[in-house]
Amino acid sequence: xxxxxxxxxxxxxxxxxxxxxxxxxxxxxxxxxxxxxxxxxxxxxxxxxxxxxxxxxxxxxxxxxxxxxxxxxxxxxxxxxxxxxxxxxxxxxxxxxxxxxxxxxxxxxxxxxxxxxxxxxxxxxxxxxxxxxxxxxxxxxxxxxxxxxxxxxxxxxxxxxxxxxxxxxxxxxxxxxxxxxxxxxxxxxxxxxxxxxxxxxxxxxxxxxxxxxxxxxxxxxxxxxxxxxxxxxxxxxxxxxxxxxxxxxxxxxxxxxxxxxxxxxxxxxxxxxxxxxxxxxxxxxxxxxxxxxxxxxxxxxxxxxxxxxxxxxxxxxxxxxxxxxxxxxxxxxxxxxxxxxxxxxxxxxxxxxxxxxxxxxxxxxxxxxxxxxxxxxxxxxxxxxxxxxxxxxxxxx
Amino acid sequence: xxxxxxxxxxxxxxxxxxxxxxxxxxxxxxxxxxxxxxxxxxxxxxxxxxxxxxxxxxxxxxxxxxxxxxxxxxxxxxxxxxxxxxxxxxxxxxxxxxxxxxxxxxxxxxxxxxxxxxxxxxxxxxxxxxxxxxxxxxxxxxxxxxxxxxxxxxxxxxxxxxxxxxxxxxxxxxxxxxxxxxxxxxxxxxxxxxxxxxxxxxxxxxxxxxxxxxxxxxxxxxxxxxxxxxxxxxxxxxxxxxxxxxxxxxxxxxxxxxxxxxxxxxxxxxxxxxxxxxxxxxxxxxxxxxxxxxxxxxxxxxxxxxxxxxxxxxxxxxxxxxxxxxxxxxxxxxxxxxxxxxxxxxxxxxxxxxxxxxxxxxxxxxxxxxxxxxxxxxxxxxxxxxxxxxxxxxxxxxxxxxxxxxxxxxxxxxxxxxxxxxxxxxxxxxxxx
Amino acid sequence: xxxxxxxxxxxxxxxxxxxxxxxxxxxxxxxxxxxxxxxxxxxxxxxxxxxxxxxxxxxxxxxxxxxxxxxxxxxxxxxxxxxxxxxxxxxxxxxxxxxxxxxxxxxxxxxxxxxxxxxxxxxxxxxxxxxxxxxxxxxxxxxxxxxxxxxxxxxxxxxxxxxxxxxxxxxxxxxxxxxxxxxxxxxxxxxxxxxxxxxxxxxxxxxxxxxxxxxxxxxxxxxxxxxxxxxxxxxxxxxxxxxxxxxxxxxxxxxxxxxxxxxxxxxxxxxxxxxxxxxxxxxxxxxxxxxxxxxxxxxxxxxxxxxxxxxxxxxxxxxxxxxxxxxxxxxxxxxxxxxxxxxxxxxxxxxxxxxxxxxxxxxxxxxxxxxxxxxxxxxxxxxxxxxxxxxxxxxxxxxxxxxx
Lengths: 397, 433, 404
Fold this sequence. Notes:
The structure holds 3 protein chains of 3 kinds. Chain A is mainly α. Chain A has helices at 22-51, 61-84, 91-99, 104-113, 120-133, 148-157, 161-167, 186-193, 198-201, 208-213, 225-237, 244-263, 270-277, 281-288, 299-319, 325-334, 337-349, 355-386. The longest helix of chain A has 32 residues, at 355-386. By secondary structure, chain B is α/β, with parallel strands linked by helices. Among the domains of chain B are: 115-273, 3-Layer(aba) Sandwich (Rossmann fold); 368-431, no CATH class. Chain B contains 14 helices and 19 strands. Chain B has helices spanning 16-19, 120-129, 142-146, 168-175, 177-191, 205-215, 235-243, 261-273, 303-309, 368-372, 379-387, 391-396, 407-411, 418-432, and strands at 24-25, 31-35, 37-38, 41-42, 44-45, 52-53, 58-62, 68-71, 76-85, 91-99, 154-158, 195-201, 221-226, 256-260, 279-285, 293-298, 322-326, 333-334, 348-353. In chain B, strands 1-16-15-19-17-18 form a 6-stranded mixed sheet, sandwiched between helices. The longest helix of chain B is centred in the middle third of the chain and has 15 residues, at 177-191. By secondary structure, chain C is of the alpha+beta class. Chain C has 8 helices and 15 strands. In chain C, the strands form 4 sheets. A 5-stranded antiparallel sheet of chain C has the order 1-4-5-6-7, with helices on both faces. Chain C has a 4-stranded antiparallel sheet with strand order 8-9-10-11. Chain C has a 4-stranded antiparallel sheet with strand order 12-13-14-15, with helices on one face. In chain C, helix 7 packs parallel to helix 8. The longest helix of chain C is centred in the N-terminal third of the chain and has 52 residues, at 9-60. Chain C is elongated, with a radius of gyration of 32 Å. Chains in contact: A-B, A-C. Chains A and B meet through helix 15 and helix 17 of A and strand 17, strand 18, strand 19, helix 10 and helix 11 of B.
């Protein structure tokens, strides 16, 4: 007669597998980030050094910045635990706590979306906001409503942009020498130009290939669509994210931008392509819109979330004059994650679909179409009135 | 077009370990303990302590819904009415019979001269009299299914056995292929169906090999391989695959009846020889057992005897850090004391050590649970509604559709007991109504 | 105290790490930012410079065939005075900018941007002069305040005359377009000034007029001064011939005084006006118009600021030629305007026009000396013009008096 262990079915769990677990997820995530970090270091560090525009030591700043970001958010989270949790008194206990809370991620992501010459104290401020206010005050990992990195980013974008620009801004030492750019990132050029003209928006930076490769001015590590695609492929392969979420998000922005172009008299495909390749949209689609804690938890919910993200990004970027369309859209949509989760869970599991559920479907559809239509028509007409001449059809690239 | 097509996930089978040894007959336990409970209904005992019983003699009655007789699985003397551990995880009353090893059959057990002449009602009566219940693990009184008013086109035999470790159905079919087809034939006649389909996992080419030679003699019966996913043995999945139709509550709405392969084999004996349900195959498997294998045993056999037959537990097994599971690893139940007895629904007993304890994060919100759910539920939402005591919310989320397959907990990277949460939510909503 | 640290060692440890990260990170980022700021400033300066160069090239390169870039040329502006066409007085052009045009690394031309005066002032012209052969390459009008119709009459052929015009041409005259003479003369003044500047910068020798202007003064002979207001003594030729000559109001040669002497040849005659006007020895604005010996009525004119309306005064001289008994201002330039009611203090302010002109005349009449020095609002042009006229009157009286 032997006494056996108690437990709840099922007794096989993937999570028990050695090839599964927090460490693996973290490792996969960091490997996915690698193409972007390496490209960022190359474009903002090595290449500029090889051009002869910066000193050797300055070349490592991008790497240092990102690492410091990760360190800062970890330290802040650790401090929070140590100060608020009586149980955590030793380094070992803290280590256990931090093992499963993915502490470094908000800091790393925040560092990657900040401009190159952001002073460290601004990064500290941002990481503080991101970790403490964006994550820990909600209850720590798994309980936060908002994407922590974006909370930190918005805190900085709405208050310290001037400081960052005074310290050097987003352009690296090679980019400030290019006359045509005049110190503006592509979206800065867009808001200044107010016309949908290929030569005004794209040509100063080269061609759309530059946008795709990421050799354009922008934040530290979010300019390269190619690197984001590599990360996307890796994440899908490792099942870290769902393949359709970035696709729906980017696709929605593409289609709506095309609509704006059409409404403004610029039907060329170059404009929606330019739209999705600029403003860190690819980065946001692969890394931020797929953030599991703050986005809906069922397939239909994720798709609906991505659709609304696309509509709001277009709205904030083209109609509003907010500093960052993608970041604001994501944080804004985070507010609605829970209702969307609930409604789409009901819609998805109803078979046959009941009357109340049809109502829910209708409300979501109407909301989305209204926002998308408003965004397209309003900004389309804004651009149309400002265009004096507009080339009729522009080929891709 | 089916709106919610049943789907599943491939999980590691671990079946090879119990297939290597042949099916053993273990028909001489010293004592059997016939549990006086079926599904959740207590049985009415009709024999007294001290009475002598023969194999197949009625010893208890199931009353009310699914009323049918329950029979003695060995011949001997009723020595006591004791408490025994049941697959439901509780101790229940059981009729203890001391085996006289004479295998004396009851008078009712006699061969039928012309089994093909039986009419539909007669066959259904045979089912009832044999005390036939779903041997796949549900334990549903089989005859009730055939009393449906719906027109039935096809009888589906579920030989899929989608849970890991279990191989009892496979081994039995390998031994008695023609009995399976006979049983299916009688089921078809009892249902009034022209078609019979045997569903099995496509990689089990052994089943195909043993059945194919006999198929010619059984017109209307075909083989239907299915994908190696869990829960491919789910009723709804099979009905959708075979008929292309779906249903709301019962397969009969789609013109199908689904029965387990072992049930069909017992029915064949019940029709042709009037042998009631008195034995079944049990898989004893798991990394915690020395020589995993299958046993054909009388109902009520103590599992301890079988473990002993296997050579005992694996070396160095610490029971406190191991699971002893009645049923499959996905839907079974952890039994705390290894004094379990075999009942009609016990297809397997698994012993394996607990996995190494790991530090798990809070719910990541990855949504894998919602992804894999075969009935398209969102388990995290149901948990949320349950935790905020929202009855309407739980109902709106269709929690009642959950069939406890366990896939959500299986895939959860944070090792959250999400299946359990949904079960509790279901219970809460049912009571709260 | 010690136990406090030990109990909370983890907190302090983390805080220490935080401070370390912050400090070292901060130092690094400050260093990096400082470097970048320097580069940004440099880049901005470069870009401003490049933009300016681009504008320069865009504006001036078309003037010089084969030119590849335009650079700023540092020089010292020369000073020169010219008579405005139409007896409107003197004008000193200003050199606004100088550029050198290069083909490759070789300087091929120089460009002078000059503020000239055509019909109105602020006629901004750019002259391009070829360094190789001292010829004008082209002229470009940068801005003007001329009368649009007349200025538009300056057609392609007008501008074409500048191309290839050699600076060695002594007269360096500009062929005017009929009806747009004032504007055309503005170009002439600009061109002459450009030559002066060119001579100063590159050692170009302005071809001598062929003569030397020994003296230039007003013609006090009432019989002849009406149409020949100036007399000049010129020395010319290899033998240094001296000649007294009359000059018209535009300083053109008007013949030998009394018909005596050897007349200068045509070329010298053509060169006289320029030299005379540039000499500054007489003011082109002040002169005698007519004199009636019988009534001793002398009509004089002078010019202040108003290029259209000269000041004209008729004096009735004393028999003793020591003053005048009466005067009449037949044309004046101060005016009664709501804004200009106050010409200075009383007695001018509030008085009826031409109070300023009259006051100066009366002042002179009183004692033969002008004591009024300034009149607010009129001291720039009107007062000096009146003074010049009254001084000339004084000289005339002296001449009539036999030198008194």
